[in-house]
């Protein structure tokens, strides 16, 4: 008799847990999956004098003079929905293939990327010792379907 009652309670507990799990999927908030954004038609220009004047980069214990550039390009959002808080990743090399930003893949962010094709602008500072022209490689962005808080 005791084992039959214990078996009933175990089955009831399993059933109750299953129902709670099922109910939680009905009322859970939507997942904020990362959306990949293609970045094409990349180019850059020097920053206007009023923006780039006195720009420095961190170089360990000493601040170094830097050149300011505005990177522009095209965004391609195939998701059909706006993408928010998109992080921009890429590699920047100088004319001699020296990395402009070692150990740093994230270059900045784009607040909102509308569906379809659009444009973006991103300001970066690179050490002034690097020779131009710069080479922009492996650029991409990824963001979310809603604002991340």
State the total count of DSSP E strands: 7
Main β-sheet description? 7 strands, antiparallel
Q: What is the helical fraction, as a range of percent?
A: 10-25%
Q: What pattern of helices and strands is seen along the backbone?
A: HEHEEEEEE
Question: Per the principal axes of the C-alpha atoms, what is the gross shape?
Answer: elongated
In short:
The chain has helices spanning 2-27, 49-52, and strands spanning 35-46, 56-59, 62-77, 83-93, 106-113, 116-127, 135-144.
What does this structure look like?
- By secondary structure, this protein is of the alpha+beta class.
- 20% of the residues lie in helices and 49% in strands.
- The chain contains two helices and seven strands; from the N terminus they run H-E-H-E-E-E-E-E-E.
- The mean pLDDT is 82.
- The protein has helices spanning 2-27, 49-52, and strands at 35-46, 56-59, 62-77, 83-93, 106-113, 116-127, 135-144.
- Strand 2 and strand 3 form a beta hairpin.
- Strands 1, 2, 3, 4, 5, 6 and 7 form a seven-stranded antiparallel sheet that branches.
């Amino acid at each position: 008799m005791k084992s039959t009652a214990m078996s009933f309670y175990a089955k009831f507990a399993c059933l109750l847990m299953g129902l709670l799990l099922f109910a939680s999927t009905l009322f859970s908030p939507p997942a904020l999956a990362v959306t990949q954004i293609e970045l094409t038609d990349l180019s850059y220009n020097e920053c206007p004098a009023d923006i780039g004047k006195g720009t420095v980069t961190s170089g360990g214990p000493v601040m170094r003079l830097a050149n300011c550039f505005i990177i522009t390009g095209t965004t391609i959002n195939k998701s059909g929905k706006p993408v928010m808080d998109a992080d921009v990743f890429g590699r920047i090399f100088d004319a001699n293939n020296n990395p402009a930003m070692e150990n740093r893949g994230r270059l900045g962010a784009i607040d909102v990327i509308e569906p379809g094709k659009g444009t973006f602008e991103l300001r970066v500072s690179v050490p002034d010792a690097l020779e131009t022209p710069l080479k922009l490689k492996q650029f991409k962005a990824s963001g979310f379907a809603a604002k991340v808080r």
